Automatic annotation (TrEMBL):
GO terms for molecular function: acyltransferase activity, transferring groups other than amino-acyl groups. Belongs to the plant acyltransferase family. This is Omega-hydroxypalmitate O-feruloyl transferase. InterPro entries: CAT-like_dom_sf, Plant_Fungal_Acyltransferase. It comes from Populus trichocarpa. It holds the Pfam family Transferase.
Length: 441
């Protein structure tokens, strides 16, 4: 991609004064004090609006949206009741928004449905100089960049602190932003109160929680107010390699589900269960861990409707809890498909209100991180539903993470109308070759 040039960079604050308040961050939020980057692509506006009109519409929409989303305009600070924790000070300090241009045509980027190095330029103006040394209280919680391509197509990139929203709540934010650019009202009223996820006093750990690891002497605790950074939930021991994209056609997905049901031991098998089981087995074998080593696959489970009482519609926080499937490599090699799929299903089925509360209490006591021993995290990006969003400049074409972080595997949608899926993962070339062979055998 040819150089992206900055048009302007502004600070957007709520269009009217908001009430100064503090927002509690739960133990599901605090491991996620790190920035998440994604980008959405759009064809040239059919209504022929200029780029200036597009980014000024975005500014106006954000000024309005930051009234109900006043917490996004705030800053992280030590909590008043416990200064070893962080909370959000809704001080109206604002967010940072950049408008940029490039002469590159969108078609020159090739496939848009998976992370690639070129996409980093679409968030090029969203990092502050010396940011790594800045205190939390000085860092915006949200950055946005709107970039126009030489063909008139647009890219809307966001960089937000993950402790504020999970993927489902970020989807709600984007739906509301799209509505405001069209001049419509809120689609979903955000509710950032996450006291429903407070740890019990005293904590009661009633289940084993293999989805988490205790902090080691060489690893930060899951939140750290004294320092300038926090451990990222996506931080695993996997070294950085090369991002690979592997397509699974619909016929292969169907065959995996049939293989899992063939021996009659399972009553059902969803696409996610079948793909997750196969990815877990193939990646574990390809990375050449010892046969007796336990391999752990994590995957987010939305507990909004699991906890009692259920979380209100519009919850704006983190309610995705790591589910996990665990087995030795020998089991993954020797056991039938139904056994491995059942392990994945059990990772979801163990969740009830008590299990969620026990996990929150475990984090309160141990201040750990999601499991980081011989593990990886599988994220089904195709479930977000962002393709329904329509902005004033048009309907979303594709949405993808900007980069693939080590220890992550993404399930991404295939080409439109294809019906298949893409697996995006980060492994050395020899291991990805073995992974691909195992995936398709």
């Amino acid at each position: 991609m040819e150089g992206v040039k900055l048009v302007e960079k502004v600070v957007i604050v709520p269009e009217m004064p908001t009430n100064r308040r503090r927002i509690f961050l739960s133990n599901l939020d605090l491991p996620l004090v790190a920035y998440q980057e994604s980008v959405s692509f759009y064809d040239p506006p059919e209504n022929k609006i200029s780029f200036s009109e597009s980014y000024n519409t975005l500014y106006r929409a954000l000024r309005s949206l930051l009234v109900p989303y006043d917490f996004f305009a705030g800053r992280l600070v030590p909590a008043l009741e416990d200064n070893s924790r962080l909370e959000i000070d809704c001080n109206g300090a604002g967010i940072v928004v950049a408008a940029a241009r490039t002469d590159t045509r969108l078609s020159h980027l090739g496939g848009l449905f998976a992370p690639k190095p070129d996409f980093k330029q679409l968030v090029a103006f969203l990092r502050e100089e010396g940011e790594d040394e800045m205190e939390f209280k000085d860092k915006p919680l949200l950055y946005i960049q709107l970039t126009q391509f030489g063909c008139g197509s647009l890219a809307l990139a966001s960089r937000y602190n993950h402790c504020v929203l999970d993927g489902a709540a970020a989807r709600d934010f984007e739906k509301n932003l799209a509505a405001f650019t069209r001049g419509d009202d809120l689609v979903i009223v955000p509710n950032p109160d996450r006291t429903i996820f407070k740890a019990r006093n005293p904590p009661r750990i009633s289940h084993p929680h293999h989805e988490y690891s205790k902090p080691s002497e060489t690893r930060d605790n899951f939140f750290s107010v004294g320092g300038k950074r926090c451990t990222n939930v996506m931080h695993f021991s996997t070294p950085h390699n090369t991002t690979h994209l592997i397509h699974i056609p619909p016929q292969r997905i169907a065959s995996l589900k049939m293989a899992a049901l063939k021996d009659g031991k399972l009553k059902k098998c969803t696409t996610f269960h079948a793909i997750a089981a196969k990815v877990w087995k193939a990646r574990s074998i390809a990375t050449k861990i010892h046969d007796e080593v336990c391999s752990t696959m994590l995957f987010p489970v939305d507990v909004r409707r699991i906890v009692v009482p259920p979380v209100q519609i519009g919850f704006a926080g983190n309610a995705l809890v790591p589910g996990c499937a665990r087995a030795s490599l020998r089991e993954l090699k020797d056991k039938e498909d139904s056994y491995i799929v059942r392990k994945v299903q059990e990772g979801v089925e163990r969740f009830d209100d008590e299990y969620v509360r026990s996990g929150i209490d475990w984090l309160e006591v141990h201040r750990g991180t999601p499991c980081n021993e011989n593990s990886f995290s599988l994220v089904a990006w195709f479930r977000l539903g962002l393709e329904e969003d329509v902005f004033s400049w048009g309907k979303l074409k594709y949405a993808t993470p900007v980069v693939l972080k080590p220890g992550l595997v993404f399930l991404l949608p295939g080409l439109e109308g294809d019906g298949g899926l893409n697996i995006c993962l980060d492994l050395p070339d020899d291991q990805v070759d073995e992974f691909h062979r195992l995936l398709m055998e």
